[in-house]
Amino acid sequence: MNIEKEHASQNTPYGIIIIMFIGAFIAILNETLLNVALPSIMNEFKVKPTAVQWLTTGYMLVNGILIPASAFLIQRFTNRALFITAMSLFTVGTIIASFSPTFNILLLARMLQAAGSAVMMPLLMNIMLVSFPIEKRGTVMGVFGLVFFVAPAVGPPLSGFIVEHYSWRALFYIVIPFALFILVYAIFKLKNLTPNRPIKLDVLSIILSSIGFGGLLYGFSMAGDKGWESFSVYSTIIIGTISLIVMIIRQLRMDEPMLEFRVFKYPMFALASAISIILSIALFSIMILMPIYIQNIRGFSPLDAGLLMLPGAVIMGIMSPITGRLFDKYGPKILAIVGLTITVITTYLFSRLDMEVSYRSLVILFSIRSFGMSMVMMPIMTNGLNQLPEKAYPHGTALNNTLQQVSGAIGSALLITIMNSQTESKAKELMRGATAEISQSDLLNQALLHGINFSFFVSTLIVIVALIITFFIKRVTEPAKDITL
User: Fold this and answer.
1) Into how many domains does the chain fold?
2) What sequence ranges are listed for the domain Major facilitator superfamily (MFS) profile (predicted)?
């Protein structure tokens, strides 16, 4: 078996994997590309903020619904057919979005884009696990980190620059040539690298998964906007939770489940999943809280808010392949402990923000925090996936991507709720002791600053939990025998 894997890795078509990397990069880039452009789109189509927000919320929901199904798709269909189908949907969606005459057509185009991008990440991860032996996976998964970390962070500043100088439609124009090139290349050059088998689709599992993950993602994503008392928020969370519980029970009773939850019986995969969930919350916390601090309190532009995070994303992109090689040599534990220690310290320092800290200091602090996080996510994830037997790879990659989506939404909602609650109580406290010399806007800014700092402090405590868990991580040197599933 080891000889076969080594032979496979020596004959790995790197050109094909690279083109799939580029496809995944532009797909993930599009998830955040429209964020800054939403006001322009709202003005052009004369729609309300609640409607225009569906261009990003809907994209995320389609991802959340289709990613769990990717385990079935990867096993049932060849990687060539899947990638060409996914890239075709994404390309068609991008072209339609570029000339969409109405908002509804633009929203449909975004759904097509999301349907294509949802399969790309799990598919790419699965191909890398099958194509490379354990001792080389750290390096290749480190390169994969370029896609995972850099693409979401590049979206806002790139979008801000383009919208400031050109039409929002240019955001789609620049993607179309890359998407078409990748699609044509895949049609003529892409080969099948992953095994597949004729398993049957359980329709009820798909329905339960869609309602479960979709309900949780929608509910928690809307909680920060509408508040927890909103019927649409708590009802979708309750329905989603019930559907998810029923779906998990059903999967555990099936001989051929759509999504194999028994992979959590592998201890290193379970620990890696727990740490990934916490890191997703930490990652989303700064992406949500920093723009509020930068724009609402300090008065910087949206472009400045996006550019603040860009150096950190570049550092994560540069460090990811380096961290991958270090993982292959030393294992995940020491990297994760050092990285999480840096993340804990810098997150705590973000909880001490004031009205005077310079923009440059914020960029440096965010970059150091990104450096710390770059040492954790990919090594921990790779170590966890390494413990799974080969037939469980599609399930492991699907669950990894799904948990990151859901935990990001939950973490964002949790921290926004904490921020709002603390801001409200602090505002009341300041109002009681206010003097005539202090304006109401200054008081509200002070209260909001307190809410942001408190949320960062909670985020610090959450990351400390991940640091503690890391001490129980052990290096995986060979996959488990197929006895647990």
Assistant:
1) 3
2) 16-478
What distance in Å separates the CA atoms of residue 91 and residue 102, rounded to the nearest whole number? 19
Cα-based distances in Å from 455 to 103, 119, 167, 250, 315: 35, 33, 36, 37, 25
Same domain, 89 and 120: yes
Q: What is the pLDDT along the chain (485 residues), one digit of tens a residue?
A: 444 444 444 455 567 778 888 888 888 787 777 777 777 888 888 887 667 878 877 887 788 788 888 888 888 888 888 999 999 999 999 999 999 999 999 999 999 998 998 888 888 888 888 777 887 778 777 777 777 777 777 777 777 778 778 888 998 999 999 999 999 988 888 887 777 777 787 889 888 988 888 888 888 877 766 778 888 888 999 999 999 999 999 988 888 888 888 899 999 999 999 998 888 887 777 777 887 888 788 888 767 877 887 888 888 888 888 888 888 888 899 999 999 999 999 999 999 988 888 999 999 999 999 899 888 888 888 888 888 888 888 888 888 888 887 887 788 778 888 888 888 888 888 777 666 566 677 788 888 899 999 999 999 999 999 999 999 999 887 776 665 55
For residues 213 and 194, state if they share a domain.
Answer: no
Same domain, 108 and 35: yes
CA–CA dist 232, 83 (Å, integer): 35
End-to-end CA distance of the chain: 20
Q: Do 317 and 245 fall within a single domain?
A: no
Q: State how far the Cα of 151 lies from the Cα of 169, in Å rounded to an integer.
A: 19
Same domain, 4 and 36: yes
